[in-house]
C-alpha cells in the first residue's frame, strides 16, 4: 500500500475540509483509482468536471501515483508571492498578493521608451451579481501551482504575440466592492499585439489558473461557478466515477 495527500479547493473544500486528507491506495494506483475511492467514501463529493493536479502539475486520469504525492482536486476556477516594489527590467512579472493592487503604479512601471502601446485589464469587484447585492468576495488559490501557471502564461504570451513585457497580479483574501482582483498589463511596440495578448491572458487565466472566488451577498454566500476546463486538463466525467 501507499499513501497520498489530497487537497481540496473551492466548493470541494466544503466536503473534504480545509486540511490535507491522507488516502491509502494500492501501489500502482492512478488518479482515476483515487477519484473512484473518494467517490465511494464521500457520496456528497461532486467530481464531475474537475481537474486534478499531482505535485502542483495538471495530471490526467491515467497518471500513476506514488508514495507521498500531493493531489489537488480542482473545481473549475474563478476566473511569486507578494508584489515587489517595482516591476523592473524583467520582461515577465507575476504575483499573488494580499494587499491592495496599485493599478496605476504597475501600469506606469511597465512602460519603456520603445513601447508604442500599454494595454491594461483591471478586473474589479462589482456591487452585484445577477441582481444580488454583493457585500464582499473572498479569493483563494492553490498558491504554488497558481504561481507556476501565471508565470507560464506570461511567458507564453510574450512568445505567442511578440509583446515586450507582461505583468499579472492577482489578489487573494477578502475584497470589497471597487477593489482590483486581477491586473494584467501588456507593453508592446504595437497596439494590436498588446490588445490580443491582454485578452488571451485574462481569458486563459480564468480557465486554467487555480484561483477560486466565494461571493458573499446580503442573503447568503456561494462559490462562483467556473468555466469548464480546456480539453486535456479537465478530468472527464467517466474518469471520476
Structure commentary:
By secondary structure, this protein is of the alpha+beta class. It has 2 domains: 2-76 and 228-240, Ubiquitin-like (UB roll); 92-223, Aldehyde Oxidoreductase, domain 3 (Alpha-Beta Complex). 25% of the residues lie in helices and 33% in strands. The protein has helices at 13-16, 31-41, 103-110, 143-161, 191-208; strands at 2-8, 21-25, 51-54, 57-59, 70-74, 92-97, 117-124, 128-129, 132-141, 165-171, 173-175, 180-188, 211-217, 220-223. Helix 4 (143-161) packs antiparallel against helix 5.
Give a short summary of the structure.
The chain is an alpha+beta fold and 241 residues long.
List the helices and strands and how they pair.
Layout: E1 2-8, H1 13-16, E2 21-25, H2 31-41, E3 51-54, E4 57-59, E5 70-74, E6 92-97, H3 103-110, E7 117-124, E8 128-129, E9 132-141, H4 143-161, E10 165-171, E11 173-175, E12 180-188, H5 191-208, E13 211-217, E14 220-223
Parallel strand pairs: 1-5, 6-10
Antiparallel strand pairs: 1-2, 3-4, 3-5, 7-12, 8-9, 9-11, 9-13, 10-12, 13-14
Keywords, separated by commas or semicolons:
241 residues; alpha+beta; Ubiquitin-like (UB roll); Aldehyde Oxidoreductase, domain 3; 2 domains; 5-stranded mixed sheet; 5-stranded antiparallel sheet; 5 helices; 33% strand; globular; disordered C terminus
